[in-house]
Amino acid sequence: MTGVPLIEVEDLRIDLDDGSRCVAAAEGISFRIDRGETFGLVGESGCGKSITALALIGLLRQPLSIGGGVIRFEGREIQRLSAAGQRELRGNRIAMIFQEPMTALNPVSPVGRQIAEMFVLHKGKSWREANQLAVEALASVRVPAPERRVNDYPHQLSGGMRQRAMIAIALACGPDLLIADEPTTALDVTVQAEIIELMRNLCAERGTAILMISHDLGLVANVCRRVAVMYAGRIVEERGSADIFRAPSHPYTQGLVASLPRLGSRAALGRIRLKEIAGVVPAITSFPDGCRFNPRCAQATDICRTVTPETDLLEAGGLVRCHHHA
Ligand SMILES: Nc1ncnc2c1ncn2[C@@H]1O[C@H](COP(=O)(O)OP(=O)(O)OP(=O)(O)O)[C@@H](O)[C@H]1O
């Protein structure tokens, strides 16, 4: 399958229709992720990261729906797959982990059983085999005493252990793509680092691609080779992770980079306040004309208030959507 991306999103639009009116919650979304690659989607809360991920796995529900564009998995259009085909894609090929594992785990079923179920349902294993594989899966995510822990219910595990169990379930069937939506936001910093390291190592060993979603540019750039920055339902910049710090091109990305504490700096030690991006993200129903970042942008001119910028290729590699890009 050389040359064919694992997943390719082309000009995706996601509509939000509340019955009285229909607005585009996200539009013009295009990116590709190759086999085994790590790709990040970053942006402030509400910019459309999670709904983009849900669209990829065919899990958008009313009032949201795909309003245009194409999503291809190994060259096949996901929207054209039957319901059964989409289910098989979600079970076997694409897995997802969320911020709060409690919402994804079944509270009345032991975690071992939930892992074993994946092997029974998607790999045709017997329960006996599947139970053994569940112990191995928990061991692979470094859960201590896995042969005992398989019998624990989700509420008996700490937040970090629950997220490990979620990763075990997600990776059970050897997916080609793991979508991780704010996987560590609810955890404290030390546990966060351990979980990220674990996820990254397991995926690298198995050749699993990662689509990581977070509001935290530092975290995403640390895990991913390439990063797309979203603002108000559009991708405004896509770059290699190192380039995004060295020479951010879009004023919004520049703002995000300026608001990151540098390791060991006075800001990281909490002694000075970091530069925040002034203003707030507009609501879906009141996206401004032209560039949606223009009301918050110090570089905005008349054209930014009226004309939507096209996506330009950067000489140094990458894409940017700004009339005045650096
Ligand atoms: N089920 C829904 N009904 C109505 N609006 C929704 C629904 N789900 C998402 N939205 C809206 O769509 C927009 C994009 O939401 P999305 O969850 O993708 O944002 P996000 O960037 O992932 O932010 P967060 O990190 O806060 O989840 C938001 O304005 C949100 O309010």
TrEMBL record:
Name this polypeptide is given = Peptide ABC transporter ATP-binding protein
Which ranges carry the ABC transporter domain? 7-257
Q: Where in the cell is it found?
A: Cell inner membrane
Q: What does this protein do?
A: Involved in beta-(1-->2)glucan export. Transmembrane domains (TMD) form a pore in the inner membrane and the ATP-binding domain (NBD) is responsible for energy generation.
Cell membrane is among the record's keywords: yes
Report one GO cellular component.
Answer: plasma membrane
**One Pfam family it belongs to:** ABC_tran
Among Gene3D superfamilies, the record links this protein to:
P-loop containing nucleotide triphosphate hydrolases
Q: Name the Gene Ontology biological process terms.
A: peptide transport; transmembrane transport
Task: Say which family it is in.
Answer: Belongs to the ABC transporter superfamily.
Question: In what way does this protein cross or attach to the membrane?
Answer: Peripheral membrane protein
Enumerate the InterPro entries for this protein. Answer: AAA+_ATPase, ABC_Ni/Peptide_Import, ABC_transporter-like_ATP-bd, ABC_transporter-like_CS, Oligopep_ABC_C, P-loop_NTPase
Question: Which of UniProt's keywords are assigned here?
Answer: ATP-binding, Cell membrane, Membrane, Nucleotide-binding, Transport
Superkingdom? Bacteria
Organism per entry? Bradyrhizobium neotropicale
